[in-house]
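Support request, please re-run this one:
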Amino acid sequence: MTPRLVILTEIISPYRIPLFNALHQSGGVKLYVIFLAETDPNLRQWRVYKEDIRFSYQTLSSWRKRLGRYKLLLNRGLGQALNDASPDAILCGGYNYVASWQALDWARSR
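Re-run finished. Output below.
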């Protein structure tokens, strides 16, 4: 049985699309990527190349606010997205977003 992997990451970065495509095409895992937002218009001005995406993904609804030098990003629907994906493992790129801690809590409860 192929393990199900969820990658939880902030935005759709053009330089990560080929990496995620290769991981998906390798067949070693069943990949599902959850993006916390499509982009950050205040920080990133790049085009989102959705037509190049070959892996399964979802972009959560989000609310973003800058508080001085800190950025707050809140999401809706992470728990349901994880339930739907039913991952064997979650790869999370850090701990600086509330969603990262929610994913940890979701994983610990299962």
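The chain has one domain: 4-108. Residues 44 and 73 are 15 Å apart (CA to CA).
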